[in-house]
Amino acid sequence: MQDSTGIARCAAFSPNHDWDYLNRTTCETTAPVASVRIAVPAAVRGAGGAVLVFSARRIDRQAPVDVVVTIGGVALPAMHVDAQWSEQRIVLDAATLARTHGATNAELRPADAAARLSVDHLLLVPRPTTVAAALVSP
After folding, report:
1. How far apart (Å, rounded) are the C-alpha atoms in residues 136 and 94?
2. Checking phi first, is residue 23 left (phi over 0); if not, alpha (psi -120 to 50) or beta?
3. Is 128 helix (H, G, I), strand (E, B) or coil?
4. CA dist list (Å): 82 to 28, 62, 91
C-alpha cells in the first residue's frame, strides 16, 4: 500500500464473488501506530460533514482493544475492536474535513501497543443528510 507505514500483508481475494465483498481486501497493522494516506475529495470536504466507516478485527489475541483513529490531526472517539469483524462509524464535522486539504494521513492507534489488526476498510463518506440537501438545492 502506497504512502503507508506500519501496514503490510495486504491481500485481495477473488473479485468474482460479488455477494461477499466484505473482508475481500485486507491489510494488517505491523506497528503500534499505522498510518495510511487517504484522499479527501472536494465533494466530501464540501458536504458539511462525513462519516468515517471503519471495518477491522484484532488478529493477535481474542481480547478486545480500543482503537483511536486520527484524521487530519484530530483524534476521534475510541472504537472497540475485538477478534470478530465489525464495521463502525463515526461522524466527522466540517471543520475536521476542512483541515485535510484534499488528502490526509489516517492513523490507527490501538490502546495496547502490541495489538495487531486486520483492516478491511477505512472510508470517508459524505453524510447522507448533507448529500440529500445538496441534491434538493437549486
Report:
1. 20
2. left
3. helix
4. 14, 6, 21
DSSP of 42-106, one letter per residue?
A: HHHHTTTEEEEEEEEEE-S-SS-EEEEEEETTEEPPPEEE-SS-EEEEEEEEHHHHHTTTTEEEE
Mapping DSSP to helix (H, G, I), strand (E, B) and coil, where does residue 11 land?
strand
Q: Can you tell me the distance from the alpha carbon of 4 to that of 104, in angstroms, rounded to the nearest whole number?
A: 11
pLDDT in tens, 20-58: 555 567 899 999 999 999 888 887 877 778 899 999 999
Alpha-carbon distance 87 to 128, whole Å? 17
CB 71 within 8 A of CB 49: no
C-alpha cell at 59: 488478529
Q: Which three cell numbers stand for residue 71?
A: 484524521
Per residue in 105-137, pLDDT (tens digit) is 999 999 999 999 999 988 888 876 555 455 554
